[in-house]
Design brief:
Elements lengths: L1 H25 L2 H7 L5 H27 L8 H19 L7 H24 L4 H7 L10 H13 L5
Helix pairs in contact: 1-3, 1-5, 3-4, 4-5
């Protein structure tokens, strides 16, 4: 049941960021108002190309990992992209002299949550189900001693002087 919930979370995450990427690709002014970045035609072209690639590739990796059996390693793609963005923002705050604004705080939170979602989903979904783990473990039970075998063991021990 939890596997389906996690796959649903991944699909919703991919849909949200996929739509954000597509909307910004078609109209980069969307990102100008959302992220507070400005630029001329070169800047707009960079927004269209780079941010669209970031969001669309992240969404594609999450969707692929959620829907294709055995493709859970695809979740590392959005985890790496959002994790790198998170580290870059932290570096900018600590070493680059960037001021902590509400937009940067929000971006840090989104990037941290997104990275965590991808890694937790990858970790949980890549583990075999508990029933499969029990079925695949070798039996380590001690063989039962039957009455004739116990009597034979006792007789052997008696002849060898091991009994009191």
């Amino acid at each position: 049941m939890l596997n389906w919930v996690l796959r649903g979370v991944l699909i919703l995450w991919a849909a949200f960021f996929g739509l954000m990427g597509a909307r910004g690709f078609l109209n980069p002014d969307y990102w100008v108002s959302m992220f507070g970045v400005f630029g001329d035609s070169t800047g707009t072209n960079t927004l269209r190309a780079d941010l669209a690639a970031f969001f669309l590739v992240s969404a594609g990796g999450a969707l692929y990992g959620a829907l294709v059996p055995g493709a859970l390693r695809a979740l590392w793609v959005p985890a790496a992209l959002f994790g790198t963005a998170f580290v870059g923002r932290i570096y900018g705050l600590t070493m680059g002299g960037d001021a902590l604004t509400a937009q940067i705080s929000q971006a840090l939170l989104i990037e941290a949550i997104s990275t965590t979602i991808m890694l937790v989903c990858w970790w949980h979904l890549s583990r075999p189900p508990a029933a499969a783990m029990v079925a695949s473990t070798p039996a380590t039970t001690v063989p039962a001693v039957t009455a004739p075998a116990a009597a034979a063991t006792a007789a052997t021990a008696a002849t060898e002087g091991d009994l009191p």
